[in-house]
Q: What sequence folds into this?
């Protein structure tokens, strides 16, 4: 009795299959790192991180102490039916075919089980105009052919299963499971019709629900019957306290967009080490942005205070480094070597004029150097470009869902840093975005491209104009 999901449901342009696959991964592993490795979702780590954020924004997953878990809404979507709803007349036709196959199975002298009863409940029983699937419960019994001769029966089951090319390929005994498999194959066919995904083996869940139901088939009374709707199954004592409530499609309205959690850059771990692989999933995907692999580059957050053994910039001791609004970008600085750090502050502002992804650099610090060499600063601008590009792409993806046409811009503000760092970090970041060394627009985007705007650095001529893309 799962919920029916809208067939065209999209979260930031991710389809139903990707959404359900992501939720099922979290339900199984609780790990966002495992989520990043889902090959069925998106084309790389950044795509998967965007979907992860969308699931958070729609309150389908939440963070526990050491893992993520599905909310009740998340469970409903994870087990939901992504097909279009079917007219009731089509469902009734499938029920008739299903009952005919049951009659044929019961008449087969070689069968091992009987289908004794078939109960219908849910939307089909209520006669709703359209249904997601057909909720039915079937009860069965074993035929007394072998009179307790289990060895004889086991051999008959094996021989019957071997006749089918699509038989299960497992080594364990198919004694009891073989009986069920043969019955299911006979009444459902080689592939169960999607409308019959709601058919349950046994009536236990129906009894627990205490829901209205109707008997459609009773072998002891000759087969098909036309009984009235009952308030609950005859064996039910009413709805049990622990019975799950009928699932309904939850409110999937997302929270307003916020900057993505920068932890995805390093696999949602603390002491986030930046590497081309951790960002893109492979070095090949990083070559356009990185001429050389990033080295000794880290993103630091509040939780790193207890773990970080190296150089501790003042920004790490004061302010909030939550990984969204503020994150510390740090390079080297260990064991007396030169190092640089800067705080990246991100916000997303939407009004009638458009949507602006704001990136402001603050609290720059140097250690063991006055004039840092290029290798000490160039990765800061590239990592900042990756983060804000992902934020901007999420804005565009949301617009693809809603059909909005608001203009989107990335605004780089370097008023919080001066002189060399203004050029070295902020302008390098702007160049990487302007040249699309890191992509901003989704592959399927057909609207206007995002604008890159520089604030408080036009007066300074920077060396980034001489940069060239990697191979």
A:
């Amino acid at each position: 009795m799962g919920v029916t999901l809208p067939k065209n449901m999209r979260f930031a342009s991710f389809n139903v299959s990707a959404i359900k696959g992501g939720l099922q991964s979290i339900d199984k592993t609780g790990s966002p790192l495992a989520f990043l490795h889902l090959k069925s979702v998106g084309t790389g780590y950044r795509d998967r991180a965007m979907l992860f954020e969308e699931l958070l924004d729609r309150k389908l997953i939440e963070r526990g102490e050491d893992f993520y878990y599905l909310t009740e809404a998340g469970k409903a979507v994870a087990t939901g039916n992504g097909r279009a709803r079917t007219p009731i007349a089509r469902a009734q036709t499938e029920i008739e075919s299903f009952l005919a196959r049951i009659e044929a199975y019961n008449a087969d002298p070689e069968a091992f089980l009987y289908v004794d009863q078939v109960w219908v409940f849910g939307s089909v029983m209520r006669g709703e105009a359209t249904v997601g699937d057909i909720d039915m419960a079937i009860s069965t019994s074993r035929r007394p052919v072998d009179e307790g001769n289990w060895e004889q029966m086991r051999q008959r089951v094996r021989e019957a299963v071997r006749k089918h090319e699509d038989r299960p390929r497992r080594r364990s005994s198919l004694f009891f499971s073989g009986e069920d498999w043969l019955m299911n194959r006979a009444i459902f066919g080689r592939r169960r019709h999607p409308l019959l995904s709601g058919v349950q083996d046994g009536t236990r869940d129906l009894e627990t629900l205490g829901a209205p139901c109707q008997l459609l088939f009773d072998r002891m009374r000759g087969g098909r019957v036309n009984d009235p709707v009952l308030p609950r199954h005859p064996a039910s004592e009413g709805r049990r306290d622990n019975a799950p409530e009928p699932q309904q499609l939850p409110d999937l309205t997302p929270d307003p967009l916020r900057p993505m959690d920068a932890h995805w850059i390093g696999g949602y771990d603390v002491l986030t080490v930046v590497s081309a692989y951790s960002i893109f999933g492979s070095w090949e995907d990083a070559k356009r942005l990185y001429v050389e692999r990033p080295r000794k580059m880290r993103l630091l957050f509040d939780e790193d205070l207890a773990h970080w053994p190296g150089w501790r910039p003042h920004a790490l001791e004061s302010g909030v480094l939550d990984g969204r609004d503020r994150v510390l970008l740090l390079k080297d600085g260990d064991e007396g070597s030169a190092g640089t750090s800067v705080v990246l502050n991100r916000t997303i502002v939407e009004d009638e004029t458009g949507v602006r992804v704001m990136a402001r650099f603050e609290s720059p610090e140097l250690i063991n150097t006055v004039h840092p060499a290029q290798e000490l600063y160039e990765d800061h601008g590239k990592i900042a470009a990756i983060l804000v590009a992902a934020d901007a792409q999420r804005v565009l993806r949301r617009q693809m869902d809603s059909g909005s046409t608001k203009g989107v811009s990335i605004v780089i503000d370097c008023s919080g840093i001066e002189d060399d760092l203004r050029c070295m970090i902020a302008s390098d970041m702007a160049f990487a975005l302007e040249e699309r060394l890191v992509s901003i627009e989704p592959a399927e985007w057909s609207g206007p491209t995002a604008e890159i705007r520089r604030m408080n650095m036009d007066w300074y001529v920077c060396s980034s104009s001489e940069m060239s893309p990697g191979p």
The mean pLDDT is 84.
